[in-house]
Amino acid sequence: MSGYDVVVVGGGNAGFCAAHAAREGGARVLVIEKAPEAEAGGNSFYTAGAFRVAHEGHDALAPHLDPGERERIPDTVVDAYTVEQYEDDIARVTEGRGDPHMAKVLAEGSTSIVGWLAETGIRWRLMYERQAYRSEGKDVFFGNLALGVVDGGKGLVRQHAEAAARTGIDVRYGTELVDLVLAGDRVAGVRVRDAEGRTSTIDATAVVLAAGGFEANAELRRTHLGEGWERAYVRGNPLNTGDVLAIALAAGAVRHGDWNSCHSVAWDVGSPPLGGDRELTNQHTRQSYPLGIVVNLEGKRFLDEGADFRNYTYAKYGGEILAQPEGRAFQVFDAKTRPLLRQEEYDVEGITEYVADSVEELARAAGIAAEAFVETVEVFNSSIEPRPFDPAIKDGRRADVDPPKSNWASEIDTAPFYAYAVTCGITFTFGGIRVDDDARVLSDSGEPIAGLYAAGEMVGGLFSGNYPGGSGLTAGAVYGRLAGRHAATLQEVRGVA
Question: Would you call 75 exposed, middle or buried from its count of C-beta atoms within 10 A (0-12, 13-18, 19+)?
Fold first, then answer.
C-alpha cells in the first residue's frame, strides 16, 4: 500500500493537532518537517506554551491540570472567560479588522480544545510566574490568560511528538515540501526533497499545510510590512520564510487577512537576530514593561505602557520600538518594581541590563540622552495620581503626561535603577491564505481546493495589527483539529495498523 490518506506539512502545534485529529478519524498520517529532528517544532517550540481559551473559571480548568498543579487552586483566582468575551477581545485589539466569523470559530472551538489535547497527551498547568500577581492573599490572574503547557513550548512539541509515536503517525524530519501534486482540480499528494537533496512524490488523499508565515524572510518583511522591517529580530523558527505560502498561492489559494502587519514584541537586543535560540527560546522577551516606563535613545517615552494588561498590548509594541531611533528602546524600573518583574525573563544570564545609583548615571551607562531622560523621569514622577498601586487589576493609577500611562504608574525614584535594552522581535505574520469552517483552503472563486487544508500561522484573517496573547497556539490547535478531522473523511480510510 503506497502513499498516505493525509500528509501534514509542518511539525509544530498546528500540524500535530491536524495529524492527531486525522489519525483519530482512522487515516494513515504522515507529518513532514523541513527541519532536522534536533531543530524541529516550528514556532511552537519557541513559545511559552500559553493557550487563551474560553472557560468557566479555575474550578473548570482544574480537572485538566497536572495533579501537582491543582493544589494551589484554593488560593487562586481565575475569572471565567466567555466565548463572547473572547470574540470581543479579538475585535477590540484588532480594531475591528479581524474576520469576526473566524474569531467565533476560534472562540467556540477553544472551549473543548483543552480536554481534547489532554486526552491526546498534552499536560497543563497554570502560569503563575507569567500571568498572576499576589493580591489580597490570592494569586490573581490578569488579562484572561492563565493556562499553559507543562515545560512551555519545548514541552508542547515533545508531548505532541510522543503522542504521534504512540498512535502510529509517521514523521519525516529534514523533509521539505517542493510542490503540491495535482490530479485534475484536486490535490493528490506532495513532492518533497529530503536532507540529501533527493526528490520524491508521496500520494495522499488530503494535504494539510501548517508551515508558518514569512517572518524569517527579510525581503518579504520589507515588501509587505514596510521599510525597516528587514531589521527586526526573528524570535523563533528561522525556516519560516514563506515558501509554503508561495506554493499554496501558486496552486490557486487566495490571500486573506492583513499581509501588512504582524505579531512583534520587545526583545533583548543581545539575542541572536536570526532566531533559533533553542536553549533560551522565549526568555529573550521582556514583557514586564507595564510596571515601568519605556524610553528611546533620546530619553523620551513614546507609548502608553499601562494602556491595558500586557496580554493585549505586547504583540503590537515591537513595531513601536522598531520605529524609534536605531530600532531600540529601554525599559526602565527602580528598586520598588524590580522584584515584580518576570524572573524567567529579567534574571537570565547575559541579559542586556544596566544598573546605576542615579537616573543620570543609568542614562550614561545605557547610552540614553541623559538630560532629556532625567527630565522625562522627573515629569513622569510628578504627574502620577495618588491611587493604590495594584498590578493584578487595572488600578487607574495614571500618569498624566504625553503619552499618558493609564495604569500602574509608579515613581522612578528609588535606587538602584534598572534599564533593559530591547528591540523588535517578530513572532509571526498575520497575512495568509483563506480557509472555511472545515479549514479547507479556498480559491479566488470562494470554492474549496479539493484535498487541500491549512492551519496555524499560514491561515490569514484572524488578526490585524495586534492580537490577544495566547491566541496563536489556540488558533493552531482549533483549525488544526478541524483540518485533520475533515481531511480524514474524504474517503473510506484504508486499513490502519
Answer: exposed
Give every CB contact of residue 259 below 8 A, 6+ residues apart in sequence. 224, 429, 430, 431, 460
Given this model, what pLDDT does residue 2 score? 63
Chain-centre distance for alpha carbon 130: 14
For 362, residues 6+ apart whose C-beta sits below 8 A from its C-beta are: 332, 354, 355, 356, 368, 373, 417, 418, 419
Question: Which residues have C-beta within 8 Å of that of residue 168, sequence separation ≥ 6?
Answer: 23, 496, 497
Q: Which three cell numbers stand for residue 458?
A: 499560514
Strand partners, 315: none
Q: In this structure, what DSSP letter does residue 399 have? A: B
Distance between CA atoms of residues 188 and 251, nearest Å: 12
Confidence check: pLDDT of 226 > 80: yes
Flag whether the pTM goes above 0.70.
Answer: yes
- 68 contact partners, CB below 8 Å, separation of at least 6: none
Distance (Å, rounded) from C-alpha 377 to C-alpha 197?
58
Q: Which sign does the torsion angle of CA 90, 92, 93, 94 carry? A: positive
- According to DSSP, the residues that pair with 179 across neighbouring strands are 191
